[in-house]
Amino acid sequence: MEGRIVEVQDTWREGALVDDAKYREMYKASVSDPEAFWGEHGKRIDWMTPYTRVKNTSFEPGQISIKWFEDGKTNVAYNCVDRHLGTRGEQTAIIWEGDSPDESKHITYRELHAQVCRWANVLRNRGVGKGDRVTLYLPMVPEAAYAMLACARLGAIHAIVFGGFSPDSLAQRIQGCGSKVVITADEGLRGGRKVPLKANVDEAIKRLGSPIVEHVVVVRRTGGAVAMEPGRDVYYDEAAEQVTDECPAEPVEAEHPLFILYTSGSTGQPKGVVHTTGGYLVYASMTHQYVFDYREGDIYWCTADVGWVTGHSYIVYGPLANGATTLMFEGIPTYPSNSRFWDVVDKHKVNIFYTAPTAIRSLMGGGEGPVKKTSRASLRVLGSVGEPINPEAWDWYYKVVGDSRCAIVDTWWQTETGGILITPLPGATALKPGSATRPFFGVKPEMVDAEGKVLDGACEGNLCIADSWPGQMRTVYGDHERFEQTYFSTYPGKYFTGDGARRDTDGYYWITGRVDDVINVSGHRMGTAEVESSLVAHPKVSEAAVVGYPHNVKGQGIYAYVTLNEGENGDDGLRKELVAWVRKDIGPIASPDLIQFAPGLPKTRSGKIMRRILRKIAEDDFGSLGDTSTLADPAVVDDLIDNRQNRA
Ligand code: WTA
């Protein structure tokens, strides 16, 4: 099945921005002379002070530094809103589709401008200015976009925390970036259920060591009663009455930070990924246009949450910079029925649809019926992101959802990359189900073996990127050393992605998944170390090791090996207790799927846990455990196998 080719259809090529020849020509130009290429494409956004320098980047050990368009000045909100007012003020910028199918609204660019300005004034009145950090903990409501753009307008740095994170996780992130303002809603609404966002913020603030947060701005979403602390908390609508809807956009340096977004890595502490202004916006807008073959007038829908990078780049910044109509969806794919995605597509005549394999797989479980009873005639391009899409899900997406008529773009990228790096282009790239295909303009993938030797031709190895692109993260917030250590020390001189990949004879890339201790659960990134440190914090647990295992719907599930303290009894009751513990500690996305109580973990004589063995057992593939001779106590392995929780 792998390697099967789905040719570009004539209808995809008609009117497309690039065909195969044009892609090859542009790609070649982009990597042979990045200065000239990006010097030209950097002009796709408006600059208040034009740049004269284009690329100033170094991947050299000890000197990691990434700067693009560094002497230019611009403003992201200006580019996403103001510059469209002359030509498309009355066009819809955002279509908001609520959790309930009865609720939706259209916001024009002119309305967006007024909203963003008002938000900026409310924040400015609370002391927010250039360089200040603002944490957003919001549901998928238009106010999330207004608040992001308001921060950008003032030169403030937003740090969004996904609404599914617990108060502890939220506190850690507020503390990490020192936000003095938090923006939240009374409650969120997903699949008919309420999420206590304001209550979580209150809990989080209580846990902060010092009084960092001066103001909490609360959006009324459900109208539910919440505690309001006088002097600190204010309802947005009340604060908004005190200000005007005019607020100038502050010109900032191209390298001024736009946002911080926390993401999981191999250690227990999430990293604050920093993205800046100019290069990020150029890259997000350019990839949005080319990868989705975005055309004037298209209705574009990305189903991600703004709490993840996909929501930043491909719900808000990329599409709005391009003057697109972007759809924001508050709900979930299965509420009120399994047809919801396709009902929304028909209701708003969506042309471009971008989702995650986990959503596709969960809908596949409901069969073709809920899809086939909708029209979906407006669809032209279907995107996938977040994890490898297995060929079965790819086929279902292509044939059932797209009626074998729509191009599929399997887009590989990361929080760190700011935008899509490896992807087909609809009018240009012959598709292979399961492959993210070829690099975007300016991206130089390099495959290396474990020793760092660069591999040629068809090969399998670790995926690196040899040179910088404008959307690349610039640093880990407050810890440049960690940035260098994490991404540039494994293979000096290259950015290491943490992903393994295969390259075939056509030069197509097949991402095989993470090679580090990061797992991808329903497209959400999770560090196994984060789950482990949560488990060992439980009073009955002495030790824990967490690995991923293949899961039909989620892609990967979370498998936890837990060693209990002397005298504790591992039973289903304790399993439930531990799951609840982790949910409360980190958030529902970190809930272990399977817990195995283990009297001992397989360790080397030097005390290092042999995760390779734990992964194999979790995969129910223990026939070939490889070399176990370095184990301190080989007998623990037999017990682990006997009591394994995932039995095919
Ligand atoms: C994985 C999400 C295969 C990969 C934008 C990467 C993918 C991690 C794909 C980043 C894809 C993302 N095919 N794997 N099309 N897209 N991944 O930071 O392992 O949440 O390293 O960014 O997701 O996840 P993150």
Automatic annotation (TrEMBL):
Modification after translation (UniProt): Acetylated. Deacetylation by the SIR2-homolog deacetylase activates the enzyme.
Binding residues annotated for ATP, in chain numbering: G386, E387, P388, D410, T411, W412, W413, Q414, T415, D499, R514, R525
Residues the record lists as binding CoA: R190, G191, G192, R193, T310, S522, R583
Record GO terms (molecular function): acetate-CoA ligase activity
PROSITE patterns linked: AMP_BINDING
Signal peptide start and end residues: none
Main EC class the enzyme belongs to: ligase
Domain AMP-binding enzyme C-terminal, first and last residues per copy: 530-608
Reactions catalysed: acetate + ATP + CoA = acetyl-CoA + AMP + diphosphate
The keyword Transferase appears for this protein: no
N6-acetyllysine PTM positions: K608
Acetyl-coenzyme A synthetase N-terminal domain ranges (all copies): 23-80
Database matches in PANTHER family: ACETYL-COENZYME A SYNTHETASE, ACETYL-COENZYME A SYNTHETASE 1
General function of this protein: Catalyzes the conversion of acetate into acetyl-CoA (AcCoA), an essential intermediate at the junction of anabolic and catabolic pathways. AcsA undergoes a two-step reaction. In the first half reaction, AcsA combines acetate with ATP to form acetyl-adenylate (AcAMP) intermediate. In the second half reaction, it can then transfer the acetyl group from AcAMP to the sulfhydryl group of CoA, forming the product AcCoA.
Family matches, as HAMAP family: Ac_CoA_synth (MF_01123)
Family membership: Belongs to the ATP-dependent AMP-binding enzyme family.
Name this polypeptide is given: Acetyl-coenzyme A synthetase
Species for this entry: Methylobacterium aerolatum
Chain's gene name: acsA
